[in-house]
């Protein structure tokens, strides 16, 4: 039933795309995009979710861009039919911004946009911009890992380096998988649950806005960066024992990174101090302690068409003794946490076939997450993708252990125009 309806909606979206392309192009503004179908199914039966599908959707994305002498305007919108969670038609404005330059040195980008910085490969320390983990687990394209946010970005260029500032008037959290599509471990019940929940965002005030900054300079071929952030934890990791509800605690981050070439490949270093502003003493139950994190990575072409990388991340919780004394419940986190990742990518037959494998493994948490995909480019416009996501862990409350019932396979077909 889902597939039949998806095909009908997909055909309608394709006709919409062709019509929109003709109308807008006639006005001298180019338009492009894609029509895409995505279907995914679970591999485990004992899952509290209401559907055996993890994805059953068709999507139309339209992109328009116009460059003038004084400014650039860009817009990207998705129209989709999601039969698993939304149960109908919807749309999202992913990007709608204008870019312009003042005084020949300061660039501004204003509006809804996708933001990213940092050095890690799917490990984010100083990248404080919103992520969409539901899309990540469901098999949508990698572009959907980054969620849009409405911000003002400014960049100042000088001989000393590049200074970038991003102000987001209203806090934009991560999009978690807790929408009913995936199950997760609930500390309240001590078992797996699938009920969707939405955590209220902090009040829309100047004090609750987000401010992120980066200073970057290239020295001897190495990109060196300093970072700062004032805002909130991007996931609702706080818990109010009075209202019995999760919330977003305040967070400040101070960090640095370096990226350059060595050993015939590329290496990177990144670190950050996560200052838990609402729990500076480290003893408040329900609020994460401050911590420090570090990351080192290296990537190299190991064969003609194969590239591999490896990363190691370490994290230390500060004031751990106070955390232990004030712990509520039995889900006790470790003082030290480690994570190892590796990506292997192969590109074959003039890049018409792309194979990708990525594993996250935490020796300290004893959990792991494996994702894989295969892309086959049938024509210049048509690409077919199959892939999967596999989770496991000994402890239910760890980052990947909490999703251990969500193993899935998916197939995706994309027609670009």
Q: What would your notes on this structure say?
A:
This protein is mainly beta. It has one domain (2-416): Beta Barrel (Porin). The chain is 9% helix and 52% strand. It is built from 3 helices and 22 strands. It has helices spanning 2-25, 133-138, 320-325, and strands at residues 31-42, 53-67, 72-82, 88-102, 106-113, 149-158, 161-168, 184-186, 191-193, 210-219, 222-232, 238-240, 245-247, 250-262, 265-276, 291-303, 306-317, 336-348, 353-362, 367-377, 382-393, 408-416. The strands form 3 sheets. The chain has an 18-stranded antiparallel β-barrel. β2 (53-67) and β3 (72-82) form a beta hairpin. It is globular and about 65 Å long. It starts with a helix and ends with a strand.
Largest sheet: 18 strands, antiparallel, barrel
CATH superfamily: Porin
Give the rounded overall mean pLDDT. 92
CATH class: Mainly Beta
Counting DSSP H or I runs of 4 or more residues, the number of helices is 3
Q: Portion of residues in helices?
A: under 10%
Could you name the CATH topology?
A: Porin
Report the order of strands and helices. Answer: HEEEEEHEEEEEEEEEEEEHEEEEE
Strand content: over 45%
Number of strands: 22
Total domain count: 1
| Estimated radius of gyration | 22 Å
Query: What would you call the shape?
Result: globular
What would CATH call the architecture?
Answer: Beta Barrel
N/C terminus separation: 28 Å
| Content-based structural category | mainly beta
Contiguous low-pLDDT stretches (5 residues minimum) are: none
